[in-house]
Design goal:
The protein is α+β, with helices and mostly antiparallel strands. Helices cover 17% and strands 36% of the residues. The strands form seven sheets. The chain has a nine-stranded mixed sheet, sandwiched between helices. Strands 18, 19, 20, 21, 22, 23 and 24 form a seven-stranded mixed sheet that branches. It has a four-stranded antiparallel sheet with strand order 2-3-4-5, with no helix packed on it. The protein is built from eleven helices and 36 strands.
Length: 651
């Protein structure tokens, strides 16, 4: 008999306060499918102003709250574009980062075009940045990224590919005026340049280059007034990356490249004479998933990954202040979102399992905590499903962490033979933690138990755990998902006759693999932007790359070698196992998906139809890989809700 789940944390501590199931409010589906009413909250450098994105009738509004004057105002309306992030350039200018799907100038290939705008809070003028830069190349990746503030000029520094048509573009760094949006080259790079670190006085602290031809990674610095090579290493993929510099500007901080999803365990310090030393933060020993730094990449601290995050800062006072807040919410996930330049004010987003998430402001000078807003005020606390962090054993003995969301209003006495929705995450080098997951919480509110397994290959639990998933698509990674389901069934918690698997991106692949390779386990399968043909995906990802490009090496390492493992890759592709499906399949895919092409769902639908299997293909027009549009996200959730209810819903 499989061991029962090991309960790590239960986030609703007083279960006696949970209402009876009949009393649970059921907000409309739109309240879950629409983007959060309040998101992206950030503090100004002086700590006197808060800015955030408000969602209103399907449109993003950039909203600013002046805490001194007590003035709250919607400043700009953003429609037909995905607002990704907002941040302050200085106390009077807000940077708005957005993106939209576009086609390359040679056609037949879509990419996510990104850009940034400056919002003048005194005049309310919105100015798009870099559009008037001379010789801006038609080829760009990451355009709109701001890497530093120029305190002398009222400008910011932004990297961009520069070059006339026909040239091999170089990645330069430009000084961009916040009022006019005009950019001028500040420092030339080369076609091999990958990134920059710029100080507030314009000094180039680091320039990173990587050569695919020689597999050489090099860091140059201009801190001494002239170009100096301070670090070099070899690797078939870029072996390191500069993430910033020490706050006192005495050294650069680098991370190794054997990381995924921005998480890593070790850092090194390289001074401007080329001396290398360890730069690891004291802490939990977990992977680092976030770096706290000023606008010019001066590093002050880190956040460690895990179901409940923890922190470490260079400044003992800041370290203590953050630890106090984490200590006040011991069973909650506390995310530090933003801070004033002097760290007197800190802004947190707290997920406590009782609300949809709350923004809380800590004023260290006054010693106060102030609740600013919940993220989804239209969803009452009583509608939120209780979240638990659990572990279960895989068939080979590996301990698998997971997030379990109980049906809203359920009690320990009623948690038996529940309909189960299994939701493997995307990535696959990502992980699910304590948060308000809009999809999981919708199903929990409608009476379903939701399991989100962090199978091997997931980030957040150490390099060894993540690398255990290399080459295990459709193998041990899939077994880990299956073993979580079996644990719940054998424990009497889940009803074996009412289980559906739902996933997006890699999770969509895992959902299709579940339907193909464990057909007796699931009554329905939902794939959102999922992969059905693994060799075809690898071919698409490498189509425009040179044979020696480091992406080839990475894909060989994590998935398989298309040249030598094609047979194995075909065997783990659900499109080649459609005859084994017994459960109906719902395929949902954004037409503008630039990560997993819509073709992946089309070929799966064609194969299912040819095999005489039950399926439905839903194309979301003008939608990307991340379901960034509120209307289409709502439409996708409506299709999922009807589909899941039909096959495993309760009377």
């Amino acid at each position: 008999m499989r061991a029962f789940l090991v309960l790590i944390y239960v986030l609703i501590l007083n279960v006696m306060c949970i209402p009876a199931a009949a009393d649970v409010p059921h907000p409309p589906l739109k309240a879950y499918g629409e983007l959060a009413k309040v998101r992206g909250m950030t503090l100004s450098p002086d700590g006197n102003t808060i800015a955030f994105i408000t969602r209103d009738d399907g449109v993003d509004l950039v909203t600013v709250y002046d805490m001194v004057a007590g003035d709250l105002a919607h400043r700009v309306r953003l429609d037909n574009i995905a607002t990704r992030q907002i941040s302050f350039a200085d106390n009077t200018h807000l940077i708005i980062q957005a993106s939209d799907t576009a086609e390359t100038y040679w056609g037949n290939h879509k990419f996510e075009f990104s850009a940034s705008a400056s919002l003048d809070l005194q005049t309310n003028e919105l100015t798009w940045l870099l559009y008037q830069a001379r010789d801006l190349s038609a080829y760009q990746t990451g355009l709109g990224r701001v890497i530093g503030r120029d305190d002398r000029q009222g400008a910011v520094f932004m990297p961009a590919f520069m070059g006339k048509p026909g040239d091999d573009p170089s990645r330069d760094v430009l000084r961009v005026d916040l009022e006019t949006g005009r950019g001028k080259v500040h420092q030339r790079g080369t076609p091999l340049t990958t990134d920059w670190v710029i100080d507030r006085d314009g000094t180039v602290m680091a320039r990173e280059d990587y050569s695919n031809a020689t597999n050489t990674y090099t860091v140059y610095s201009f801190a001494s007034g002239k170009k100096q090579k301070v670090f070099e290493a070899k690797g078939a993929v870029p072996p390191y990356s500069v993430i910033g510099m020490k706050e006192d500007r005495s050294a650069l901080i680098l991370i190794p490249s054997n990381v995924e999803d921005g998480q890593y365990e070790n850092m090194i310090e390289v001074d401007f004479e080329g001396h290398v030393s360890d730069a690891s933060f004291p802490g939990s020993g977990s992977q680092i998933e976030a770096i706290y730094q000023d606008m010019n990449q001066g590093i002050s601290g880190v956040r460690f990954a895990g179901a409940l995050p923890s922190y470490s800062f260079y400044d003992p006072g800041v370290d203590q202040a953050v630890a106090e807040i984490v200590g006040q919410f011991p069973a909650s996930a506390v995310f530090l979102q933003s801070n004033s330049d002097d760290w007197s004010k800190l802004l947190y987003l707290v997920y406590d399992g009782q609300t949809t998430g709350r923004y809380i402001l800590q004023d260290r000078t006054k010693g106060t905590l102030t609740i600013i807003s919940t993220t989804r005020p239209e969803i009452p606390d009583a509608a939120v499903g209780e979240i638990a962090v659990v572990k279960y054993p895989a068939r080979d003995g590996l301990s698998i962490p997971a997030i379990l969301t109980w049906p809203a209003g359920s009690t320990p006495e009623t948690r038996k033979k529940l309909p189960l929705v299994v939701m493997p995450h995307g990535g696959p080098a990502s992980y699910d933690s304590v948060s308000f997951d809009w999809m999981a919480q919708y199903f929990a509110n409608r009476g379903y138990l939701v399991l989100q397994p962090n199978f091997r290959g997931s980030a957040g639990y150490g390099k060894e755990f993540m690398q255990a998933g290399y080459g295990e698509w459709g193998g041990k990674m899939q077994d880990d998902v299956t073993d979580g389901v079996l644990t719940l069934v054998q424990g009497g918690i889940a009803d074996p006759a009412r289980i559906c698997i739902v996933g997006a991106s890699y999770g969509g692949y895992a959902a299709l693999a579940g339907g193909a390779f464990t057909p007796d386990l699931y009554k329905c399968v939902v794939s959102i932007g999922g992969i059905s043909d693994v060799p075809e995906l690898i071919r698409e990802d490498t189509e425009y790359l040179q044979q020696n490009h480091w992406v080839y090496t990475y894909l060989k390492m994590t998935i398989g070698d298309l040249a030598h493992d094609r047979g194995d890759l075909k065997a783990i592709s659900p499109v080649n196992a459609v005859d084994r499906f017994t459960a109906p399949v719902l395929l949902i895919h954004g037409a503008d998906d630039t990560v997993v092409p819509f073709e992946q769902s089309k070929i799966m639908a064609k194969a299912l139809e040819k095999a005489g299997k039950s399926y439905l293909l839903v194309e979301l027009e003008d939608e990307d890989h991340w379901l960034s549009e509120g209307d289409t996200r709502i439409a996708a959730l409506e299709k999922m809700a009807v589909f899941v209810d039909r096959y495993i819903g309760t009377p």
